[in-house]
Amino acid sequence: MYRREFSQANQSVITDNKTLEREINLAKVIQSKLLNGEKPKLDKDDISGVSIPARLIGGDYFDFYPLPNGRLRVVIGDVMGKGIPAAMLMILTRGAFRTAAESTQGPGETLTAMNNALYKDLRSLSSFVTVFCADWEPSTGAFYYSNAGHSLPIVVRKTSELIEIPKIKGVMLGGLPDQVYKEEKITLQEGDFIFLYTDGIIEARNREGDMYKEGRLIKVLKENVSKTAVEIETVVIDSVTHFTEGVAQRDDITMVSMKVGKDKTDISSFNSPLV
Predict the structure, then answer these.
(1) Can you tell me the distance from the alpha carbon of 118 to that of 109, in angstroms, rounded to the nearest whole number?
(2) Which of 262, 234, 238, 244 shows the shortest CA–CA distance to 203?
(3) Residues 118-170: tens digit of each pLDDT
(4) Which of 1, 39, 41, 258 gets the most CB atoms within 10 Å of its CB?
(5) Structural domain boundaries, residue 266
(6) How far apart (Å, rounded) are the C-alpha atoms in residues 157 and 30?
């Protein structure tokens, strides 16, 4: 009798595990579709995006949102935590961004609206989200940006000169209520390359426990600035993979790359883990 009951209990566990696996895989498909939806149709712009989380589902986030005034709103973010909880908050963050993008004038107002929408939920869950948001205006080369506790982008001229963009501080989403996020602006030129990323790149570790760090990333970008956005992303991934020597990484790697061309702006995004 006990053997039969044990067998039935064991079969129940197996069934539950299979159900959980199917549900997690479904969540992965849903998240992938949300991150990799239809590309914006912009004049003379080439846009692509890929998301491959470090686990089955992840918490990094990027998005493109074409605006009626001809600008492209770009966002990249990193939710505190990993796995399913982070993925759920990522989807919540995406919804807040999409809603804010429709009703705000610039990236600063977008982050302000996002924090107002997310603050109570994030605080109740003891979580937060770092976000960098920007408006790219292809007709003038203007790049307006605002920051909520995220790493600033790296900008490299076609001469391989590193451009230090004005620093702008802002509390991470969920950090404090009633925050007003300020904006800064730079003007991009033909051949400029701008690189947005999450800390999974610079915090990647090798067998000795050493981190990849920003200095190594900047060196790679300067050496490959003549390449296309997608090619540079591939070079960065190869560089980090070589550095980590096959060591499994704990964090997703997410980047948004934009190469300013003479007749078009080449924009690409890549979201990938290292395993």
Answers:
(1) 14
(2) 244
(3) 999 999 989 999 999 999 998 888 999 999 999 999 999 999 999 999 999 89
(4) 258
(5) 39-273
(6) 38
Assigned domain for 249 exists: yes
Task: Yes or no: say if 109 and 96 are a contact pair by the CB < 8 Å rule.
Answer: no
Distance CA 189, CA 185 (A): 13
Query: Tokens in use for 75?
Result: 């966002």
Whether 8 is covered by a domain: the verdict is: no
Q: Looking at residues 248-253, what average pLDDT do you find?
A: 80
Distance CA 245, CA 19 (A): 35
C-alpha torsion 17→18→24→28, nearest 10: 150
| 117, two tokens | 């929408």
What total of structural domains would you count in the chain? 1
Number of residues written out for the chain: 275
* Residue type at 243 in one-letter notation: F
169 domain-assigned:
yes
CATH number of the domain where residue 140 is located: 3.60.40.10
Query: Which among 115, 130, 132, 133 has a CA at the least distance from the CA of 71?
Result: 133
